[in-house]
Each structure stands twice: as structure tokens, then as C-alpha cells.
Specification:
By secondary structure, the protein is an alpha/beta fold. The chain has 16 helices and 14 strands. Strand 7, helix 6 and strand 8 form a beta-alpha-beta unit. The longest helix is centred in the last third of the chain and has 27 residues.
Length: 442
């Protein structure tokens, strides 16, 4: 059954195209520094926002019009698989991602839930045989159901801990069955509201134990996917244990998991933590922990997770700069559009417009970032700014060949300390110049 009858396969038509169902900048076959855009960007479609999201909010019921919503239960789940692979083919994306409850409804028991999931997984596997679209990563939803009201791996209830573990066990089996490149943990309820009723140490210790058991089981079944932590600072809990990459990295180091996990970094989560998207990417990159990306953006005037499709090409440029500088790029990760259309964009065709906008935005960011790297625009300025550490006392500091006695001796001999401008406005103007050149086709 077809669900997008009026929409043809999306093609690249160039910047001058006025066709709303065409890529203007994303040309999957165009090569950038020896690799195609498709190989570098590794775009993925989020099953939850694209095929299960109804666009409801705290003040209104869902507004989304979806042709598959005429079905219910398992029939609805099967219809979504049909719609998903039609969408993947027409958008020509290499990857998709899902939670367990996105693809199959929960039953009244865990056994029933697993049975439902087995039916849909078998259907997905059959569709994947004739599709270029592969599974970037999967995960399980251990946060929506009321049983997870106090958390999952960090719950105060041992029965909930066991239930969450059983769901992850099934998720790992599904990931192996479908050939997932990665497996993601998002701790939606792994945090607390107040310390007044919280044993923080026990919760964090148990969460560390949970992650170790997950990796042990993955090894047991031969599932060699990249394991990813996705940080988020707030929503739904007041304090979450994976606040940002820095706190997440400290957690992994404390529980000897730094060689097991990397990070799946979401742009909107970065801004909720008070950071820029590129800050989180940089922190992960310089520590060898950048694994994958959830591509979206937040609204600058709103303080919650709005999950908008990324259209800010300044942001996508700086993000792609970090990704290109990462050893191996995104490796086994990708750019998953963890983004939803706005409540007023309720027609099925809006799903295509949103993904086209996001893919074009990252394509522009890719081209400009590569040009900035090729021309040594940012690196050159940074290297010049820190040139005092290339010789003399600066080189001694870097090489560990000094101490406070020698540093004091050096400081006492100084007659003048001269700082130089950071040239921030010049740098921003240069980036604007490159962006405008890209728009002009130069």
C-alpha cells in the first residue's frame, strides 16, 4: 500500500530550483575531499517523530494527518513500516533509528510486548532486504510508561530496574537481528527531582552496573555495535545524571566505561545545558568520544526541548567543522533527524519539506566547513593565538619541564606582558564571507 502517492522521489536540482520537493544543496553523489556527501553526512530518519508523532502538546490534542492512522494496534504498526520504507526510498536516506515502542505497541505483559516486537522486526527485516536504508541505531523507551516514574536503571525500585534491563536485553537482540551500527542509551528518567528523598550514590552506582551488564550481554550475543550515551540536562527530571558531555564523560570514567561508550550528541540538548552545539561536539571530539549526532535545533526564545528541524546554516557549519575534524568523521554514527514538524505543519507532505530543509542545511554546512579547513581559516588563527607555547617558557610548560620556582623566576624577569586581540569579529566576518560565497556558488 502506498501512503505518499502524490510525491515522487526527491532529487537534487541545485540552488536555482524552485521545486519544494527537490534538494537545492544536498547532492548525495557530490564528492567532498574524496567522499560523497551521503558517505560523510550519513543521514537518518527518526521513526518516532516521523511516523508515530501526532503533534500533540500540553495544550492540545494531536493535529497530524497521517494516512496510516486509520489503522489500530498491530495493523497500525505494520502500516507504519510500509509508510516508513516508502518514505526512506523517496527521500533516498541511508539510515533510520527507532525505540522499541515506536515500531510495536506495548502489550499487557513483557512477553506480549516482545511478541509484538518480534512480528514487526521480522517485517522490517524483510523490507530491508530490498532497501538501501539500514538501521543506524536502536534503543528502548524506558521513560514513558508510569512504571518508570522514578527512573529505570537508576530507579529506587529493584523490580523496575529488572524490567528495564529485560527491555534493553531485548533491544540488544533486535539491534543484532537488524544489523544496527550503534545502540543508544537516553536516560529520560535517569535523574531526580530532589535530594530530600534520593540516594544519589546508590542510583549512580546502579546505573553504572546497568551499563556494564548491557555491554556484557552484547558481547555474549556477538552484537558489536557502538554504544552511545545521549546527554540531556533537564526535562523530564530536574537533575539528570547525563547533564552534558562533560558530566557524562566523568560518569563513564568513574565507572570504568570510557572505553565502552561514546556520545550521541543532540543540538537542542546542548543548548538546554547552556552550551552551544559545537561546544558539546568539540568536548566529545577532543576526548575521542564523538560517536553520533541527533540533528535538530531549539527555539532561541523557549527554554525547553522543541526538537525543530535544523535550518540554521551557521550552526550546521560549525557542527560540520567539528565532525570533519573528528578522526574518521562520524564513523559508525550519523546525522539522525531527531526533529519534528511544527504543530501547524500537519500534512504528510510537510514531513518531506522538513527533511529536505534539514538535509540541505547540513549540506551547506559540510561544504563551508570543508572550505574553512582547506583554507586553514580557523586553525591558522588559533595556532597564532597560542604561539607563546611553541618555544621558551611556553614550550617548557607544555612539555612538563618546569615548576612554580622556574615560573616565578620567569615572571620576575618580565618587564611587560603584551596580549593580542582575539579577533573574534574578524573571525565571524570570515565565516559569513564563506557562507555567502557558498550561497553564490563560489
Amino acid at each position: 500500500m502506498a501512503y505518499f502517492n502524490n510525491i515522487s522521489n526527491i532529487k537534487f536540482e541545485g540552488a536555482s530550483s524552485t521545486n519544494p520537493f527537490a534538494f537545492k544543496f544536498y547532492n548525495p553523489e557530490e564528492k567532498i575531499n574524496g567522499k560523497t556527501m551521503e558517505e560523510i553526512l550519513r543521514f537518518g530518519v527518526a521513526y518516532w517523530h516521523t511516523f508515530t508523532e501526532d503533534l500533540s502538546d500540553p495544550f492540545g490534542v494531536g493535529s497530524a494527518i497521517r494516512p496510516w492512522d486509520k489503522f489500530q494496534g498491530m495493523d497500525l504498526a505494520k502500516a507504519r513500516v510500509e509508510a516508513a520504507f516508502e518514505f526512506f526510498e523517496k527521500l533516498n536516506v541511508p539510515y533510520f533509528c527507532f525505540h522499541d515502542v515506536d515500531i510495536a505497541p506495548e502489550g499487557s505483559t513483557l512477553s506480549e510486548s516482545n511478541k509484538n516486537q518480534d512480528t514487526i522486526v521480522a517485517m522490517i527485516k524483510e523490507y530491508m532486504k530490498d532497501s538501501k536504508t539500514k538501521l543506524l541505531w536502536n534503543t528502548v523507551n524506558n521513560f514513558t510508561h508510569p512504571r518508570f516514574v522514578h527512573g529505570a536503571g537508576s530507579s529506587n525500585n529493584a523490580d523496575v530496574f529488572a524490567y528495564a534491563a529485560a527491555k534493553v536485553k531485548k533491544g540488544l537482540e533486535v539491534g543484532k537481528e537488524l544489523g544496527a551500527e550503534s545502540y543508544v542509551f537516553w536516560g529520560g528518567r535517569e535523574g531526580y527531582e530532589t535530594l530530600l528523598n534520593t540516594d544519589m550514590k546508590l542510583e549512580m552506582d546502579n546505573l553504572g552496573r546497568f551499563f556494564h551488564m548491557a555491554k556484557d550481554y552484547a558481547n555474549e550475543i556477538g552484537f558489536d555495535a557502538q554504544f552511545l550515551i545521549e546527554p540531556k540536562p533537564k526535562e523530564p527530571t530536574t537533575h539528570q545524571y547525563d547533564f552534558d558531555v562533560a558530566s557524562g564523560f566523568a560518569f563513564l570514567q568513574n565507572y570504568d566505561l570510557q572505553d565502552v561508550f561514546k556520545f550521541n550528541i543532540e543540538a537542542n540538548h546542548a543548548t538546554l545545558a547552556g552550551h552551544t552545539f559545537e561546544h558539546e561536539l568539540r568536548y566529545a571530539r577532543i576526548h575521542g568520544m564523538l560517536g553520533s549526532v541527533d540533528a535538530n535545533q531549539g527555539h532561541p526564545l523557549l527554554g525547553w526541548d522543541t526538537d525543530e528541524f535544523p535550518t540554521d546554516i551557521y550552526s550546521t557549519t560549525l557542527a560540520m567543522y567539528e565532525i570533519l575534524k573528528n578522526d574518521g568523521g562520524l564513523g559508525r554514527g550519523g546525522l539522525n533527524f531527531d526533529a519534528k514538524v511544527r504543530r501547524g505543519s500537519f500534512e504528510p507532505e510537510d514531513l518531506f519539506h522538513a527533511h529536505i530543509a534539514g538535509m540541505d542545511s547540513f549540506a551547506v554546512g559540510l561544504k563551508v566547513a570543508q572550505k574553512l579547513i582547506d583554507d586553514n581559516v580557523l586553525d591558522g588563527l588559533v595556532e597564532d593565538r597560542y604561539k607563546s607555547f611553541e618555544d621558551g617558557i611556553g614550550l617548557d610548560i607544555v612539555n612538563g619541564n618546569t615548576d612554580f620556582h622556574k615560573l616565578e623566576e620567569h615572571a620576575l624577569g618580565l618587564t611587560e606582558i603584551k596580549n593580542e586581540s582575539g579577533k573574534l569579529e574578524r573571525i565571524k566576518a570570515s565565516i559569513n564571507q564563506y557562507l555567502l560565497r557558498a550561497y553564490a556558488g563560489e
